[in-house]
Write a structure and sequence with these properties.
Blueprint (H helix, E strand, L loop, with lengths): L29 E5 L22 H11 L3 E5 L9 H10 L4 E5 L11 H6 L2 E7 L10 H13 L5 E5 L2 H6 L1 H6 L4 E3 L15 H12 L2 E6 L1 H4 L6 H14 L4 E4 L26 H11 L3 H15 L14
Parallel strand pairs: 1-2, 2-3, 3-4, 4-5, 5-6, 6-7, 7-8
Length: 321
């Protein structure tokens, strides 16, 4: 199931490209989407799609400190499948005042999956990666969403979806009927191009955030606008969402910025380098797109505090427990 070792030693994430934002985020700000990778202690799944280097809790703490972020949401990466040991280690390190987790449950109907135990350790949602695990869609996607809803609703969890925006729009009726909060990763899966911000799929997402507890994560702009092309479309889409329902937006860095399954080369013995991204600049861009401090207070502090059930007031900006 899990490999005992890698043939090549893991590389380590670098913070060299990360600069502090020009204006510090408000007290209690939360980075709502990061991953931790600790292959020396927690080997990756044998059937993974790629092999990342190490990006551990100490690296993450230094990253959050540089940005001035108080809180963080650890998202289970695909390379660990449903083995949550590394994620739980991170939650324990940061403590309940600072961290929450999002699990990945490969077999949603498995009665042996102890969701209440995960809840006690800080997990507050489940992620379905439709972009990788089920990219073609099909009738089983709806049943997958419904099974996930049935498992997590009693715990008050939310469903996090990684899917392209066309897929999200096609699932709008199902998402509306789930009656639990839904979070869409990476600008709702929008791929920026001329007119993307006002195209029909974007219209559907805007309608959903108005009509239901559906959140859009303003994360990984390098995935939504590769090479920085058409960032104006991301800006326009962000403003549309903020005008419609500012209480439904979240911000995230997507640290440590894995390369992305669309550009991967080589076998699993090759350590894939992390992208060099400046999350401080992404925070500055958010301020440029949404200059009203009240919007950023909601997006960075109030919305994640409510969704992930963080205590108040905000925790200090650094120091692991």
């Amino acid at each position: 199931m899990n490999e005992a070792h890698l043939d090549t030693g893991p590389s380590r994430v670098s913070l060299a490209a990360v600069e502090a934002p020009m204006v510090p985020p408000p007290l209690g700000a939360c980075d709502c989407h990061v991953h931790v990778f600790a292959p020396a202690r927690h080997p990756y799944a044998a059937d993974r799609a790629y092999t990342p280097g190490a990006a551990e809790t100490g690296d993450l703490d230094a990253f959050l400190s540089r940005l001035g972020m108080a809180r963080v949401v650890l998202v289970q990466p695909s390379v660990y499948a449903s083995d949550h040991a590394a994620l739980l280690e991170g939650l324990h390190a940061f403590g309940p005042d600072r961290a929450r987790g999002i699990a990945v449950l490969e077999e949603l109907a498995d009665p042996l999956l102890d969701l209440p135990a995960l809840h006690e350790q800080g997990v507050r949602g489940v992620r379905l990666n439709l972009a990788v695990r089920n990219p073609a869609g099909g009738p089983d996607t709806v049943s997958q969403l419904l099974r996930a809803r049935d498992r997590i609703a009693p715990l008050g969890w939310h469903l996090q979806l990684h899917a392209d925006i066309g897929r999200v729009a096609a699932l709008a009726e199902t998402l509306s009927a789930l009656e639990i909060p839904v979070v869409l990763d990476h600008f709702a899966g929008l791929l920026a191009h001329p007119g993307a911000a006002t195209a029909e799929p974007a219209d559907t997402v805007v309608a959903l955030v108005r009509a239901m507890p559906l959140y859009v994560k303003l994360s990984a702009p390098y995935r939504a606008a590769p090479g920085g092309a058409y960032l104006d479309e991301l800006a326009a889409f962000t403003r549309r969402l903020a005008d419609a329902a500012p209480e439904r937006l979240l911000w995230a860095s997507d640290w440590p910025h894995t390369g992305g399954h669309g550009i991967r080369q080589g076998g699993l013995g090759r350590i894939e380098p992390f992208r060099s991204e400046n999350a401080g600049a992404a925070l500055d861009r958010l301020r440029a797109w949404l200059p009203d401090p009240a919007d950023r207070q909601r997006i960075l502090v109030d919305n994640p505090a409510r969704l992930y059930a963080f205590p108040v007031p905000g925790a200090p900006a650094s120091s692991l427990s």
